[in-house]
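Lay summary. Proteins are chains of building blocks that fold into shapes, and those shapes determine what they do. In this project we predict the shape from the chain. Here is one chain we studied, written as its sequence of building blocks.
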Amino acid sequence: MNVPGDLKYTKEHEWVKVEGAVATIGITDWAQGELGDIVFVELPDVGAEVEQMGPFGTIEAVKAVSELFSPVSGTVTETNTALEDDPMVVNRDPYGDGWMIKIDLADASQLEQLLDASGYKTLTDEA
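And here is the predicted shape, written in a compact code that computers can read:
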């Protein structure tokens, strides 16, 4: 399982990468593996407000449908429209081309509440 060290993670298996005031969000390699082949991703509209640990969309796989939860609060500035045509890119590259949304980060201190790579590996080892 791939767990990049430069990201922060939630216990619900989302990741966030912050560059300046922009937070890019997706699901982890562990999550996509548990879900199986992803067939549909529903994402919010640009301009939508998301709250930390609030739902921002859904992901549908062969095995299950799951809600997506935002690691941080902010305003959606971009969605990954490539997922509309090829949602399985999340299976192939969850930390790269499989990103889901980008938001303007409202409160950088929220990052302190998230897991680092080591903490996330411990969580998934226990699952």
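What the prediction tells us: The first helix runs from residue 29 to 35.
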